[in-house]
Amino acid sequence: MTTDQASATKRAHPSAQERAARGKAARNETPRSSHGRWVPAANRPDPVSLLEEQAASRLPDLVPIRYGRMMVSPFTFYRGAALIMASDLAATPRSGLTAQICGDAHLSNFGVFASPERQLMFDINDFDETLPGPWEWDVKRLAASLEIAGRDRGFAPADRRAIVAAGANEYRARMHQAARMRNLDVWYAHIEIEQLLELIKDRGTSKQRAKTKATIAKARTRDSMQAFAKLTHEVDGRRRIIADPPLITPIEDVVASSTGGTGEEELRGLIRSYRRTLETDRRVLLEGFEYLHAARKVVGVGSVGTRAWILLLQGRDAGDPLFLQAKEAQESVLERFVGKSRYSSCGQRVVAGQRLMQAASDIFLGWQSATGTDGQSRDFYVRQLRDWKGSADIDNMAANGMEVYARICGATLARAHARSGDRIAIASYLGTSDTFDRAIADFATAYADQNERDHQALVDAVGSGRLIAQTGV
Questions:
Q1: Is the separation of the CB atoms in 444 and 164 below 8 Å?
Q2: pTM of the prediction?
Q3: CA-CA distance, 363 to 282, in Å (whole number)?
Q4: Domain annotation covers residue 210
Q5: Are both 91 and 233 inside the same structural domain?
Q6: 312 and 212 in one domain?
Q7: Three-state DSSP string of 392-404
Q8: How far apart are CA 207 and CA 309, in angstroms?
Q9: pLDDT category, 11, cuts 50, 70, 90?
Q10: Do 185 and 63 reside in the same domain of the chain?
Q11: Of 14, 83, 277, 452, which has fewest CB within 10 angstroms of its CB?
């Protein structure tokens, strides 16, 4: 009998009443109102030092791009500050109830994508930091991102508070809904685009509905064929990825100029070995594609500096392309605060967490390790680069639109947590009053103030020459 089998036979199955009592009892240890407090500890780590610590394991020529992107505004800073916030959250009250959490659940890490059945779905779409941990950490990271985005948009304080409270309220309502559901129904629950449009129809304006439909229509065009047309050209009769340094650098240029890259043979080996982490049917499908070319691609804000590759493959002919993304997975920013991952591979940690939290995951989602030309072995996870992916236009969102979006994200986060956490206990802890909602709104305001101070610390560090930033990239 394996360890997992043994633990499964010993696992307790308390009644629904006992689980509800556990959640209610947790209020005595950690009152819901306590989540509203944020006061930085006297020994709080220097936020710039934490960023420098992360930079040590990243590609040095790309780190200035990360700093440049984080400098743009407090909101872009927040997107790259997952480690800083994890360090801060470790000192805040915890209910003692856990779930598989995203670890970086800010509002830009939600979006639409295609399910294997070719249905457009809305879900969390970034799991680089995923780990079992306190569910309220995800709620607080989402809430603070809403407050910070609202400030970035120039919304009034009352509007920002309404937005944050709406997200927390929806999370609480959906967790109560999940608590009443059967286990299988919780597992099958998902938000399809039709449900999303219904929610916007009930709460949004005609303009918001039109913008959402436009986003959906655009998402349906974002696939491997679109990437193929945009990112490749023909060179000597062979298809190659177009260079656009420093954002897109073909593999031959990376290997020629860097000691931290991964050679083409290593990438070919990664593809071959990564297939073993796929289900049999998907492995057979992938084996029908031939590797053509690869390039290093700078992605996101928080991930800039980690090694990310786009891989061009071809099926039956030039009209049958497949773009995969192999993204380096490092230790989760949560691990030093909630314990090490059970997985020795950081790539497997990401994939396992994504499959646990997402209602439906990419058919090519898998993991593997690869040894670079510098002799270092690194973990990667692999997925399609584009598969009907789309995201909300937060930069142009009105206050009432952001309130609707906050509810959608809150509902999505609750559904994801309910799959692995004790949804009955969490719902009982949250209760039926708005106590938790108000506390989260208080926290978001206080932490947004802290984020502004941290953003200024980064700006000052660049101004003093402590850090080097590359802007406009």
A1: yes
A2: 0.93
A3: 7
A4: yes
A5: no
A6: no
A7: CCHHHCCHHHHHH
A8: 38
A9: confident
A10: yes
A11: 14
Burial class from Cβ neighbours inside 10 Å (0-12, 13-18, 19+) for residue 168 reads buried
What type of residue sits at position 258? S
Chain Cα centroid distance, residue 95: 23
Domain of 268 in residue numbering reads as 224-384
pLDDT tens figures, 336-392: 999 999 999 999 999 999 999 999 999 999 999 988 767 788 999 999 998 778 888
Does residue 465 surpass a pLDDT of 90? Answer: yes
Task: Find, among 396, 317, 415, the residue nearest to 155 by Cα.
Answer: 396
Question: Which amino acid type is present at position 399?
Answer: A
Asked if residue 322 belongs to a domain, the reply is: yes
State the Cα torsion 410-413-414-420 to the nearest 10°: -170
| Helix 399-420 vs helix 157-179: crossing angle, to nearest 10 | 30
CB 415 within 8 A of CB 115: no
Residue with tokens 């991952």: 341
The answer on pLDDT for 150 being more than 60 is yes
Q: Is residue 33 a contact partner of residue 439, using CB atoms and an 8 Å limit?
A: yes
Q: What percent of the chain has pLDDT over 70?
A: 95
Tell me how far apart the alpha carbons of residues 353 and 101 are, in angstroms, rounded to a whole number: 8
Sequence-ordered alpha helix ranges (H) in 221-312:
224-231, 251-257, 264-274, 280-286
- Residues 451, 38: Cα–Cα separation, whole Å: 12
